[in-house]
Amino acid sequence: MLQKFGFTQYESQVYEAIMAREEPLDATTIVNYSNVPKAKIYEVLNRLIDKGAVLTTMHGKKKLYMAVDLQSIILKLKTDFEKDLEELKSYHIKRSFDDEHIWTLKDESAIASQIEQLMIEAESSIIFLAWNEHMEKYKSLLEQKEAQGLHVEVLAVGGLQTTLANRYSLIHTLEGNRLEPLQLLIVDETYLLFAGMEHDAWKAIKTMSKPIVKALTDYFYHDVALAQITKKYGEQLLQDEEISKLLARLIY
């Protein structure tokens, strides 16, 4: 049974042999009860001592061994696991290479998880474009990252109430045009995730390809510029039919 929790077969055999006896045992007796080779017994016993599963004492010139009760071992295993889990949560491997591949993702929840994780791991900057209902999911996290000193810029389609310093809104003003939902995230000018709807299902790409990251960063600021222009001069521009059609093509 202990083999399921990181013990070797020999360690499990020795522990069970000692545990089955009420009195402490010496190494020779443990060999007889456990069927572990004599040449291996001290090595196995020392590992069990290091793991806190076996206690040792001297009785005259003889070293004796006693098993720690199983409930104590269970408690130690649980404590060690929880400690290791906390360390793993904070462990971060920084990529030291350029991954030019374009990875595809499907499923809205999987895409949302990837977006959140990229935001959490961001170290210097976050650029995010999304519809208001999607932007709301990450608003608190974005505000938190900005408070940590990161440069955060967002463009919300439909508007967004937030304390973020660099926030822009694009409001649907052109009749007869339907905005297609999308999400664009660029982290640390290096990592990109672009998601959109295809046949009523979310699909996305994730990449570190520098040309694509650069192109879609420009795309973000293109939309920011259009949002600001239409916000400031929208009424005047939309009176011109040619410009109105051009804006519809650029934005929608």
Tell me what the structure shows.
The protein is built from 8 helices and 9 strands. The termini are far apart. The strands form 2 sheets. It has a 7-stranded mixed sheet, with helices on both faces. By secondary structure, the protein is α+β, with helices and mostly antiparallel strands. The chain folds into 2 domains: 85 residues, Arc Repressor Mutant, subunit A (Orthogonal Bundle); 150 residues, Endonuclease Chain A (Endonuclease, Chain A, 2-Layer Sandwich). Helix 1 crosses helix 2, helix 1 crosses helix 3 and helix 7 runs antiparallel to helix 8.
- First-last Cα distance: 62 Å
In the sheet with the most strands, the strands line up as 3-9-8-7-4-5-6
Mean pLDDT: 85
CATH architecture grouping of the largest domain: 2-Layer Sandwich
**Proportion of residues in β-strands:** 15-25%
Q: Given the helix and strand composition, which structural class is it? A: alpha+beta
Tell me about the largest β-sheet.
7 strands, mixed
Radius of gyration: 31 Å
* Poorly predicted runs of 5 or more residues: none
Q: Summarize the helix and strand pattern as letters.
A: HHHEEHEHEHEEEEEHH
Overall number of strands: 9
The CATH topology of the largest domain is given as Endonuclease, Chain A
Helical content (DSSP H or I, runs of 4+): 40-55%
Shape: rod-shaped
State the CATH class of the largest domain.
Alpha Beta
Alpha plus pi helix count: 8
